[in-house]
Design goal:
- By secondary structure, the chain is mainly α.
- It has six helices and no strands.
- The protein is 75% helix and 0% strand.
- Helix 1 packs antiparallel against helix 2, helix 3 packs antiparallel against helix 4 and helix 5 runs antiparallel to helix 6.
- The longest helix has 26 residues.
Length: 138
C-alpha cells in the first residue's frame, strides 16, 4: 500500500495518492487502533497533503482525529503543536477566524514551551528542576 501511495505522489497524481493515503489510514485504524503511533503518523502526513490540495474541511477532520488520538495517550509533542497550527490554518481558510485564532494561539504556546524546555535541557548547568534558568552572579 505504501509503495502505491509513493508512486502516485511521484508521478504527480497527488489526488490519487491522497485517496490511497486515506484508505491506508482507515485500514491502520481498524488493525492497529486510532492511538497507535503508525496510525497517528499516517494521519499527520495525510493532513499535510490535504492542506496542500486545499481540501481544508477534510484536513480539519483528519487533524481532529489525530489530536484526539494524541490526547488519548496524553502525548503533546512537537507534531501535536504543528497539527494545531495546521488545523488553525484550515479554519482560517474556511472563514472560521475565531476558532483559527484560538488554535494558532494554542499551537504557539505549546511550541514555545517545547522549545524552551528543549533549550534548557541542553544546558544542564543552569537549569533548575522546575525548568527555570538559574542565573549565577559572579
Amino acid at each position: 500500500r505504501q509503495m502505491c501511495i509513493r508512486d502516485s505522489y511521484g508521478i504527480g497524481q497527488i489526488e490519487n495518492g491522497a485517496d490511497s493515503h486515506f484508505q491506508a489510514l482507515q485500514v491502520r485504524k481498524d488493525l492497529l487502533g486510532p492511538t497507535h503511533p503508525e496510525t497517528l503518523s499516517l494521519a499527520f502526513e495525510l493532513s499535510k497533503t490535504l492542506y496542500y490540495l486545499k481540501q481544508f474541511q477534510k484536513c480539519h477532520n483528519v487533524i481532529a482525529d489525530y489530536r484526539a488520538g494524541k490526547e488519548a495517550i496524553n502525548q503533546r509533542d512537537l507534531d501535536y503543536g504543528l497539527a494545531l497550527g495546521l488545523q488553525g490554518l484550515c479554519q482560517l481558510e474556511v472563514g472560521q477566524a475565531f476558532t483559527a485564532k484560538d488554535l494558532l494561539r494554542q499551537a504557539v504556546q505549546l511550541m514555545n514551551c517545547l522549545l524552551y524546555t528543549s533549550d534548557a535541557a541542553d544546558d544542564l548547568l543552569c537549569v533548575d528542576l522546575g525548568g527555570r534558568r538559574i542565573i549565577k552572579k559572579k
